[in-house]
């Protein structure tokens, strides 16, 4: 299934049913009073954050959703049936805004959360409602109120505690497959990851936490280069960023160049994202030359905290998980 994280749809709530003009007609009662019932209310359009949905794929082809209209009122003061609601399930983390004005209508961050995005029209009143001492036989009733039509823009931002970022082929997919049950595509070439991956990490000493892995970033990503910029929104909600660097790709003449390049792209995309708590991790320490590169990085980094791991062999993985849990606990206490 293709990963769809943006969609624009149109929703229409149901129109209210028309009130009824009717008079009581029975044997021996030739001139009975009015008895027209009210029309039913139109159905609502409801959005619901469902754990069964992971993407906005369902809106890729169908773009118009209508709730049912209310039925008209009937004689003998019978009220018309209300129109049925339509419930659209969306993944948690979806932001819904008005496509015409840009106004944010709802940010669905809680599983099971519901919101009436378009209210159905009210049913019209039947003629029995207009009977009075001066008008004993009203021959009119109200039409039902029209429903609402709205064009909605939906944008999915994955809900995760930790975001993995770095250049292509830094080992992000391997790492998330080692620390969680996620099984992304893994290969030894850049841009193996084409869509975000989400995994849950279980530990023996702390609460589980969710990790999001996005496609690799490259220089110029903030202007649209590469793939990662399309998915940076998915780590905007994270609390900790794990900046993964391929130790074998560290430039001996400028050990911090790759680190600085990614942070430059983050700051140009969003200052708020660039200010998030960041844990630098040197990966692929099992390969030749990685130890020397790590020493050069340490000399250039000064007091910067960083860790060394090998996602392929498992070296340093437990220490990394423990440090992430520690950082999350510290943020919880703040």
UniProtKB/TrEMBL annotation:
Pfam families: GTP1_OBG, MMR_HSR1. It is an enzyme of class 3 (hydrolase). Residues 1-159 form the Obg domain. Gene3D superfamilies: GTP1/OBG domain, P-loop containing nucleotide triphosphate hydrolases. Its cofactor is Mg(2+). Mg(2+) binds at residues 173, 193. An essential GTPase which binds GTP, GDP and possibly (p)ppGpp with moderate affinity, with high nucleotide exchange rates and a fairly low GTP hydrolysis rate. Plays a role in control of the cell cycle, stress response, ribosome biogenesis and in those bacteria that undergo differentiation, in morphogenesis control. This is GTPase Obg. The gene is obg.
């Amino acid at each position: 299934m293709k990963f769809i994280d943006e969609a624009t749809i149109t929703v229409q709530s149901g129109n209210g049913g028309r009130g009824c003009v009717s008079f009581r007609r029975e044997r021996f009662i030739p001139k009975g009073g009015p008895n027209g019932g009210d029309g039913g209310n139109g159905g609502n359009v409801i959005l619901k954050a469902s754990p069964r949905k992971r993407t906005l794929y369902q809106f890729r082809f169908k773009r118009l959703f209508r709730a049912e209209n209310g039925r008209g009122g009937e004689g003998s003061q019978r009220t018309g049936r209300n129109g049925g609601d339509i419930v659209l399930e969306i993944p948690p983390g979806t932001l819904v805004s008005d496509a015409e004005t840009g106004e944010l209508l709802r940010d669905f961050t809680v599983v099971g959360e519901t919101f009436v995005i378009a209210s159905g029209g009210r049913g019209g009143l039947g003629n029995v409602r207009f009977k009075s001492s001066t008008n004993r036989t009203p021959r009119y009733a109200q039409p039902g109120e029209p429903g609402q039509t709205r064009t909605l823009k939906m944008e999915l931002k994955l809900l995760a505690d930790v975001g993995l970022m770095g250049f292509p082929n830094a080992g992000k997919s391997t790492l998330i497959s080692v620390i969680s049950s996620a099984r992304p595509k893994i290969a030894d070439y850049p841009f193996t990851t084409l869509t975000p991956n989400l995994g849950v990490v279980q530990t023996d000493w702390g609460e589980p936490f969710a990790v999001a892995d996005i496609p690799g970033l490259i220089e110029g990503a903030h202007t649209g280069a590469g793939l990662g910029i399309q998915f940076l929104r998915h780590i905007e909600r994270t609390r900790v960023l794990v900046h993964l660097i391929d130790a074998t790709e560290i430039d001996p003449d400028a050990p911090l160049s790759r680190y600085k390049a990614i942070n430059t792209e983050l700051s140009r995309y969003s200052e708020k994202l660039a200010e998030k708590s960041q844990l630098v991790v040197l990966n692929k320490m099992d390969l030749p030359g990685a130890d020397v590169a790590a020493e050069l990085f340490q000399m250039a980094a000064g007091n910067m905290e960083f860790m060394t791991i090998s996602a392929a062999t498992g070296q340093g993985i437990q220490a990394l998980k423990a440090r992430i849990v520690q950082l999350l606990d510290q943020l919880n206490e703040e």
